[in-house]
Amino acid sequence: MIGVMLTLMCENLAQTVTVTDAGTGLPIAGASFISSYQNIRLDTDSNGKVEISRLSQSELISIEASGYKTIYRSYADILNTGNIILLERNENKLDEVVISASKVRQVYRDVSARVTKILPQDVYFQNPQTAADLLGTSGEVFIQKSQLGGGSPMIRGFSANRLLYTVDGIRMNTAIFRGGNLQNVISLDGLAMENVEVFWSGLDNLWQ
Known about the structure:
Elements: H1 2-14, E1 16-21, E2 32-35, E3 40-43, E4 49-51, E5 61-64, E6 71-73, H2 75-80, E7 84-87, E8 114-118, H3 120-126, H4 131-136, E9 142-144, E10 152-154, E11 166-167, E12 170-171, E13 196-200, H5 203-207
């Protein structure tokens, strides 16, 4: 009985497939395994994994993900790849569109006019030493370094208490911080961040 249970567990494990980005190696959530013959569609979870035993009778399976090239594989070919599927990015697809909204009513001049997002694959490619260097890779933020290893973000000449730093919506700095260059942003680990955004206000906001 024990031998039979172990065999079933190994077979079930062998049918779990992981879908990753061919360039970065990061898992792809929401990738779809579609069998037109069986009329079945299975999607990967947040870790890029999906159990595909239901597709064992399919001769051809399409593997699709938004922003990636669609590939076609048989059930046997998928298992022969070591249960890892690599998808290449489709350069003809549009870039990601970010919409930042608030739950409360706001005056137009108080709403950010532009959002620059730093993607995880860009962070791994640049490999910044500090969170300040990470912001500098966006091309939208100037980093002032008064000493080795320091970093004070500046936007249009404004820094310190004239900028707002938030981590998971919680303020890092307040108006009581000094007006000179401030290095506290380097206390964050840039490689541990899941998402980084730079909010720009409109030109009319700058003077009002």
